[in-house]
Amino acid sequence: MKSNLLKVLTVACFTAISVLNANNLQAQSKSISVGLGVDLALPTETNTITDFVLGGTLRGQYNFDPKVSATLTSGYYHYFNTNPIIDRGQIPVKGGIKYFAGDNLYFMGEIGAGFFTRSNGQTAFIYAPAIGYASTNIDLSLRYEASAIQGGTTGFVALRFAYGTLFKL
User: Tens of pLDDT along 26-78?
Assistant: First the structure.
């Protein structure tokens, strides 16, 4: 339990620092970008009920300035298992902050809810720190994502490849 609390506090601190930093930066041209991604993931626990996770996500991103963006991500994850009876899906809805440390390298923290399509329709609290590389149309990231539900937390390490487009405001 302490480990989960530490992870949540870490994401919350990262988000707060990013927001404070955004307030200190001089506002430049604002824009919105939208990206469609494919997520490939492996579970972090050895006694998990899934062998791998495959997902598709849509991410909207509001760029406050060249360094700080707010994100909203949703989609569908399918948790594959050799036993088809245990196969299940999840619909994540996450909000986050993305901070660009350079021209293309970024750090991101997201929190939200995950709605399981099986397992009695449970809802999980999701937290996901990430590091990534974004160019004009391509976004490649590596993240750890955890879903905390009553009875425990499951997590996976995911690689996301996305193609997006930018809209100037």
Answer: 444 689 999 999 999 999 987 666 789 999 999 999 999 989 999 999 999 99
**Quick one: CA dihedral 32, 18, 72, 107, positive or negative?**
positive
CA distances from 38 to 21, 81, 117, 141 (A): 30, 19, 19, 11
Only one residue has tokens 């440390």, namely 101
The pTM score is: 0.79
Q: Are 101 and 76 in contact (CB under 8 A)?
A: no
Measured between alpha carbons, how far is 39 from 61 in angstroms, rounded to an integer? 17
Number of C-beta neighbours around residue 31 at 10 A: 16
d(CA 29, CA 108): 21
